[in-house]
Amino acid sequence: MGGFFGAVSDRDVALDVFFGTDYHSHLGTRRGGMVLFDKKEGFQRQIHNIENTPFRTKFERDLADFRGHAGLGCISDSDPQPLLVRSHLGLYAIVTVGIINNTDELVKTYLSDKGQQFLTLSSGRVNVTELTAALINQENDLVSGILHAQEVIDGSMTILILTEEGELIAARDSMGRLPVLIGQREDGYCVSFESFAYHKLDYQDAYELGPREIVRLNAKGFQTLSPAGKQMKICAFLWTYYGYPNSNYEGVNVELMRYRNGAIMARDEAERGGVPEVDFVAGVPDSGVPHAMGYANHSGKPLARPFVKYTPTWPRSFMPEDQQVRSRVARMKQIPVPELIEGKKLLFVDDSIVRGTQLRETVDFLYSTGAAEVHMRSACPPIMYPCRYLNFSRGNSAMDLLARRMVQELEGNEGQKHLEEYADSRTERGKCLLHEICAQFGFDSLSYQSLDGLLEAIGLDRDKVCTYCWTGKE
Q: Would the keyword Iron turn up in this protein's UniProt record (predicted)?
């Protein structure tokens, strides 16, 4: 996915941008970038590959060369950024987070004007941030350009710009699928995805942008340049998986939502006939743990940690790029506590089941360590559709998703017409899906959180929450 952090002040903000960006490292694993603006030295920029080395390690050596009263940084799971752009709108730095589904169409339209061109990545793809900047530059000012870009982009685009006047312009995507928050301290302001990132830097909560809203920030304050829209579809997966425990989105804390979510799962399972008799409830580390805590507390089953993750050398489970190497890394990270596994009946709660690759490794690992039974619970419904907005899964095909593959195996193309039924465990097709996954993975039982239960745990108006990956509905 990705995230960004920007700061503007009467003092040097290089350290704020460095630490604030580093605190978004849980949102992406491919590229990191920083750019500072100083009135005397102009823009200073650096981009590094962070697939095998954390952001902090790569950028520490650059800090001596960074200085300025305004700056921004980004963690990107897609293309290298921030970019420096010179156009009739002036010189500015830009970072984006989102997806453009109609890239070819937009590029073709832009290239229809002779003399226009794009740099391309080695794959031949156009950098999404460069394309966004090109769309912005079609208008006569940055605000009009941002609105134009968001209107013509099929997908989602959240934007942060640093101008040569030393100001920041932040634009939340048109449906508010991602959060954008402003922090304040006596000597300046910051803009961030994650509130805890600026709390650690002594900023206080000041403002949360609405969907489609555009705000300008300088050392003296912030001003809305374009008002918020009325519709919002914030991503539910922020609470389920992506969000850091102490993050708050639309006033809802991530950790508390996960406790509630686990408790609702246990409540609903008890109403359907009872929670399995197990020795321990456990969470698949790390984000599955709070869901499991809620499940255990409500069900009255003991909570334990039958295995832990060894993270000093491989801190993030979804890197590196190669699936075979990634699977081996996932297995190497799982360190068992045999005394809590051998002969024990275990119920695990994971944040989600996406492709199922690492889940298979986990189940095999538990049985090989002597588990008597392994029951699995997913803290969200079966994922049936690749995300069109935030790129939370690297897979581009629906058949990369475990639930969709199982449906295809069970009923072929006919099954693809009945995905809503397969996603509901109360239906015959839903029960069949659970049975087939249990059979292939060796679970003693499997259950998914219902969509109603998930939305209850979040607590927002369901019309304001994006559930596309589960329902396929906009």
A: yes
Q: Give the burial class of 400: count Cβ atoms within 10 A of its Cβ; 0-12 exposed, 13-18 middle, 19 or more buried.
A: middle
- Is 432 known to sit in a ligand binding site? no
- Model confidence band, residue 112 (pLDDT cutoffs 50, 70, 90): low
Q: List the structure tokens of 51.
A: 């697939």
Rounded CA-CA distance 16/29 in Å is 21
| Cα 2 to Cα 25: distance, rounded to the nearest angstrom | 8
Within 8 A by CB and 6+ apart from 44, the residues are 35, 36, 37, 38, 65, 66, 67, 68
Task: State the pLDDT at residue 54.
Answer: 85
Give me the residue label for tokens 């996932």.
Answer: 330
Backbone torsion region of residue 405, taken as left when φ is above 0, otherwise alpha when ψ lies between -120 and 50, otherwise beta: alpha
What's at 47, amino acid-wise? I
Element (H, E) at 3: strand 2-9
Look at residue 386 and give its three-state secondary structure: coil
466 known ligand binder = yes
Residue 320 confidence (pLDDT):
53
Segment 308-351, tens digit of pLDDT:
877 666 555 445 556 566 666 666 777 889 999 999 999 999 99
Examine residue 306 and say whether the peptide bond preceding it is cis (omega within 30 degrees of 0).
Answer: no
469 in a known ligand binding site: yes
The three-class DSSP label of residue 32 is strand
**E strands in 177-289:** 181-185, 188-192, 204-208, 214-218, 221-226, 234-235, 248-249, 252-253, 280-283
pLDDT in tens, 403-438: 999 999 999 999 999 999 999 989 999 999 999 999
Please tell me whether 154 is known to bind a ligand.
no
